[in-house]
Request: fold
Amino acid sequence: MTSTALAPRPVDPESRSGSGSGSRSGSRPAKALGALRKTATSIDARTPDHRDRAIDGLRALALLAVPIGHWLLGGFRVDGEGALRNASPLSAFEFFAPMSWVLQMLGIFFLVGGYASVLSYRRSLARRESSGRWLRGRVARLGRPVLGVTAVWAALIPVLYALGVPGTTLHTGATLVIQPLWFVGVYTVITALTPFCVRAAERLGAWAAAPLLASVAVVDFLRYGPFAESMPSWLSMLNILPGWMFAYQLGVSWGEKKIGKRGAWLLLVGGTALFAALLLAFHYPASMVGVPGEARTNSHPPSLLVLALAAAQSGAAILLRDRLGKLLRRPALWAPVVIINLSAMTILCWHQTAMFGAATLGSFIGPIGGLTTAPDTLGWIAARIAWLPVFAALLVLIGRWARRFEAPWQAGSRAANVRRAVAGLLAASFAVFALGLA
Reply:
């Protein structure tokens, strides 16, 4: 490179405004873009070569689907007393149901969770650590953010009520917050069963997930088939553990290298065929999430349709792994994946608070399209899409403060023990309030 190439270029005086502010303002986007590129390059450079970028990418994709799904498929209406109540566009628009097929990616999350858990478990055994110690570390990483969000909400509820937020609105918000937290409890129980999943994968390979599928099929037959009227109401609860463990077991088998391309194609084709048959021949509800007023739901607890979708998604994920890994070699794509994974539990725990906070403020102003108006018009859909960046910005602001709950807590000192006890009491009181037990 010659010296003339490094020399500054002359500036045309006519290209500047008199004060020169236009040049400075015009350089700001370029500087911001340069800073982002530098950050992305730095994150990429610090990533170990052995890091499985495809697995992190799949986890980030599944994580993002949670807030986007809740923000798009959840809404509010204001009752006669000015309080917010939950509402869903799925009640008015049946064509929204296929969107839930894309946004319901818990199958991918459990698949990746099983894959990552078995690798972590194997590394722990190689270090001669006990299974109990490995599990305690996993549970602590899941539990701290949950304890944080519930304790903060418990402390905020009386303050918000004193500021004039109706009690019904607070119950609506508490219900929204607790909705995604059931997942953490189920995931924790399934994580504790990782050693059993590993042994099942060693003996049966990919077929280790088949008994779980069969179990859900039997329960569905009993609760929806010819004997449905004589079945107890609690029968559906038997699907919770095997229903969500299905994809996790597939992930463990994948991590143990028991599922190859042939198995992935079988999952993709078989899952898709079963999904179509359940919808068309057995008339399962089309929506993957609960619809207000509907007697049947696919997700709580999971029906066989959820497992069919999880099988198809898992097969596709396994087949696309190598391509996704190559794609994420680009720093600009890899950096967001890292950031999302580092804030995984914060996103899960606080995204509903971001939406609820915006709606609560809006309820004091009046009817606002896409925010506090009933989700029963096409205009609401367009307005809600416009609100998504606002919810995302609020989540980022909340997350910058709330990420502290993902870090290990201090232990040993008397003050730390007192803080833990207070947080536990607050979390318990929030659960009582949210579940309507008091």
Remarks:
- DSSP finds 17 helices and two strands in the chain.
- The first strand starts at residue 75 and ends at 78.
- Residues 1-23 have pLDDT under 50 and may be disordered.
- Strands lie at 75-78, 84-87.
